[in-house]
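User: ok so my PI wants both of these folded by tonight, can you help

Assistant: No problem, let's get them done. Here's the first:
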Amino acid sequence: MTRRGALLLAAMLPLGACAAPATDAAPHGPAPGPARTATEPVNGTLDLSPLRQSGMDYDPVPSPEALAARRPIVAAGSVDGWQQGPALDSYPGGPLDYRVLMRVRITTPLKGVRSAASIRDGVVFIEFDQGAVIRDDALPPELWRLEKSVADFERAIPTGTRVLVFPLERPAYEQTVHAPGDPLPPGAKIMSIPPQGLVLEDPGLVRLGSERTLVGGREPLRGGSTAAWLEPRTMDEMIERLRRAGFSE
C-alpha cells in the first residue's frame, strides 16, 4: 500500500504470548459432543482486522475449558476502553515496535482473579500489536506514523463490548522500552493472551437477534473435531459452560 509515497512496514515482533505447550494440565469438563459444522458468524459490526494482522502458527486448544485449565486467569467482562501501550526499540535504525492496550473491566471472575495482585480495581490491561508504521524518509524512523491509532482500535472494538479473556502477566520485554505509553494504576501489570485467548460478543449480532453472537479476537473460533469453541452461542452460554466445568470464583 502506498500513501503519498509512504511504504507500510510490518510490525517487527509478534506478541510474547503463545499457546500453552502440550505438557500443560489435562482439560476437564463436559465430554465432547457430536461433530458440528458450525462456523463463526461474519455479519456482525465488530472490525476484527486490527487484531488479526498476521497469521499465527500454533496448536489449537480444543475447547474453552481446556484453555481455562492451562491459564492462571480466566474472566468475563466488557471493554473499558483502549490506551497507548509501550513503544519498543526494534533494530538499529529501524522504526519502533508499538503496542496498544485493551482495558477489560471484569464482571465475572472465573479463575485466578481474586488472587492476582497485578489486577487493580477489577481491570486487566491486554496487550496487542499495534501494527504497521508508514515510512517517511523526511523523518527519523522513530517518528514514523502508525497506520492505526488507539482511536482506530476503539472504533473497531468499542467500549462496552462483552469479552472473555484468558490472560497471563506479561514477562519483561526483551527489547529496550523506548516509551512506556499511557500509565497503569500502581501495581497493575500488562497482560498477554494466547491466540485463542480473547472471545468477543458482537453487539451487532446481538441487536439482530442472531442465534450465534460470539467471535474470536486474535483468531477465529474453531478447534477440535467437535468445534467445541462454537458450541456456546452467546457469551452467557460460554460463561455457563466454563462454570459447569468447575471454573467459578
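One down. Here's the second:
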Amino acid sequence: MAAKKKASAARAAPQKSKKKKSRAGRLVAVILLTVLLAAVGCGIYYAIETNGFTRFEYVEYNGRRLGTAERGVKLARGKNVFEIKSMKPAAGAGKYTVRIQANSEAKFTFQADGNPQSFSHVGEVTEYFGIEISEDRFEVNIPSDYSVSAVLSEKYGGETVTLPDELPKDTDFWIMSVGLSDGKTILIYFGVSDKPTISINPPHIIF
C-alpha cells in the first residue's frame, strides 16, 4: 500500500507543477496585455492633447490639394475659396493664419509718387485681398479692377504708382502664407487671371 501511495504522489506532483506554470503564464499574459493597452491609451491621449494628429492638415483650392510650396496658382477676380482639411475632423478645425506678401523673386523697380521703390522690398499686402477667415475655410476676395499697380498704390497710401513698361513674365507676383495649427506652413505662389469674371444674373449676363 505504501508503495502505491508513493507512486500516486509522484504522479500528482508533476500535474500540480504544470498547473502552477499554466497559471503563471496566464498571469504574465494578462500583465503584458494590460501594459500594452495602457501604452496605446497614453499614446492616443498624448496625440489628442498635443494636436499630434493634425500633422495631416492641408489646404485645398477648387478641389485640388496644394503642396507645401505650390507655384503657378491663378486666382480669379472675385471670391476664391480655400478649405482647410484635416485627418482629425472630430477635434474640429485648429487655428490658422493667412498673410500675403510680394514675391521677392520678382525683381523690378517702380515709382511711388516719383520715388523709386524695389518690388522685392514691398513686403506684406494682405489687406488689399480682402481675406475672410472662418473655422475651416477662408476666402480671398480680389477686386474686379485688380492690377499690380493698384495693390502697390494701396500699399503706399494711395500714391500714384508707375510701373516699368514690361513686368517680369511667368512670375507669380504674390505669395500667400498659410500657417496651420500643426506648425506647418503652406506657401502659395499666385497671380491673378487676366480672364474676366462672369456671373449670371438672369436675364442679364454681367462681365
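Confidence is low (pLDDT under 50) at residues 44-55, 197-207. The chain is about 25% helix and 30% strand. Good luck tonight!
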